[in-house]
Specification:
single chain, 456 residues, alpha/beta, Aminopeptidase, Glucose Oxidase, domain 1, 2 domains, eight-stranded mixed sheet, 35% helix, elongated
Length: 456
């Protein structure tokens, strides 16, 4: 496998580099690496003036208005809000404590769509499941009247692949516990840091399963709870949990769009996506204010090199965090509108290290051109097949061309969905590398004719 990859990389990179500094797009990308401040201006502005932007709330609406003003000021055309309705959940009071045998408070946060305990809270025995698989194996009805605690530890990886392993504990763990009779569920945070900062995120309950109170413990608190189980012996561990979130019913969210208009409007546009909403614990800098800043800066940089052949459309999707509401609404509204290719930035702001597409084999000439153009920024070629970001449903539904500019995710899940998702965690130099790579790739795509997927 290693030799196969080396041979592939050598073949991709062996030909003369096509993108030269004399090329206006390449020059714009090189300039972005050292001087670009547009992405920083966006993320600094929205985190300072708006802050958290929970889906379906007044704060998210203020974020949309702020983003539209910013896009207009930055010279984008056809700036608009495309509203849609969504189911909206908001958190309330959240407390947890072990009441016996080792009484002490725990640091928690409610998971999106969690049920409520009521103001008085609930107290019950805790049953420990070291992994999601252990919970799956529990007999039906065995958790009646008890609180399920799911361990399921996550480890950092460059490509973020451990999220797929650990994520089910949050995504469906509480619902699974509820189906086996649990009155509440707590999970180890789906995150990789050792700070006392619990990670929120959405959870789901299957049809016919009544939502139960569900929360995430910070990793140090989960460690502590596991140690309690190790030394409690036959003594039951009892927890009191107070969660008072509310379902607000249907409220309005929206997708914000803007364009750099191309020379040939008859050609399908290039779609650049991010999501504008965030969870409410931090200020949404890393997830995903930085992504919106990156794609907008890249679009403007391409325009600065001369009007592109194709229109470049930016999509600041709404309500991604609580169920891809914006992505689904955008696909429903625009499914019959052809797009040339889709790319998303939604994995923080650390450096891009790998280029994936879903046309590497079907259009090797275009892939080779893209790969050669970003080598100077430290980006490697890849045989991995791009699947597109969460807000690119419209491209997937069209079975269209996708590019994934893979960012280094080693520290992303230290910050993801926590109070620590704040501006100071963004490295300006790495943010500029993102903008430079995006400028180069988008510039090539926006000035290329033909079908990106190759022969169909």
């Amino acid at each position: 496998m290693k030799n196969s990859y080396l041979a592939f990389a050598a073949a991709i990179l062996a030909a003369p580099v096509i993108a030269q500094p004399a090329d206006p797009v390449a020059a714009a990308a090189d300039l972005a690496l050292d001087e670009d401040r547009l992405a920083w201006d966006f993320v600094e502005g929205i985190t300072t003036e708006v802050g958290p932007r929970q889906p379906g709330t007044e704060a998210e609406a203020r974020g949309r208005a702020w983003a539209m003003d910013w896009l207009n000021a930055a010279g984008f055309a056809n700036v608009a809000n495309e509203p849609f309705m969504m189911d909206t959940w908001v958190r309330g009071e959240e407390r947890a404590e072990v009441v016996a045998p080792f009484a002490q408070p725990l640091t928690i946060t409610a998971l999106g769509n969690s049920g409520a305990t009521g103001a008085r809270g609930l107290e019950a025995e805790v049953v420990y499941f070291p992994s999601y698989a252990d919970l799956q194996a529990a007999p039906d009805g065995s958790l009646r009247g008890k609180i399920a605690f799911i361990g399921h530890e996550m480890r950092p990886t460059q490509d973020g692949s451990s999220y797929g392993f650990a994520g089910p504990a949050r995504w469906t763990g509480p619902g699974l516990a509820a189906s086996k009779g649990a009155v509440a569920a707590v999970i180890r945070s789906i995150g990789t840091e050792s700070h006392r900062t619990p990670h929120t995120g959405g959870t789901t309950f299957a049809a016919g399963v009544t939502p139960i109170p569900a929360a995430a413990l910070s990793n140090p608190d989960a460690d502590n709870l596991e140690r309690m189980f190790a030394r409690a012996g036959d003594r039951p561990i009892r927890m009191k949990l107070t969660l008072t979130p509310r379902q607000l019913g249907r409220t309005e969210s929206g997708n914000v769009v803007g364009e750099i208009v191309g020379r040939d409007p008859s050609l399908p546009p290039v779609l650049l996506a991010c999501h504008l909403d965030s969870w409410d614990l931090g200020t949404g800098a890393v997830d995903d204010g930085a992504g919106c800043g990156i794609i907008a800066a890249a679009a403007r940089n391409v325009a600065s090199a001369g009007q592109p052949l194709r229109t470049i459309r930016v999509l600041f999707a709404g309500a991604e965090e609580t169920g891809l509401w914006g992505s689904r609404a955008y696909s429903e509204a625009h499914l019959n509108e052809p797009f040339a290719v889709g790319i998303e930035s939604d994995f923080g702001a650390d450096r891009i290290w790998r280029l994936d597409t879903n046309f590497t084999d079907s259009n090797p000439q275009l892939y080779r051109r893209l790969a050669q153009s970003v080598v100077r920024f430290g980006v490697a070629p890849s045989r991995e097949v791009a699947t597109g970001g969460a807000d690119l449903n419209v491209i997937r539904d069209q079975k269209g061309a996708l590019v994934d500019l893979q960012q280094d995710g080693t520290r992303y899940f230290d910050l993801h969905h926590t109070p620590d998702d704040t501006l100071d965690k963004i490295d300006p130099a790495q943010l500029r590398q993102n903008v430079a790579v995006w400028t180069q790739v988008v510039g090539i795509l926006a000035n290329t004719e033909g079908n990106f997927l190759g022969q169909q």
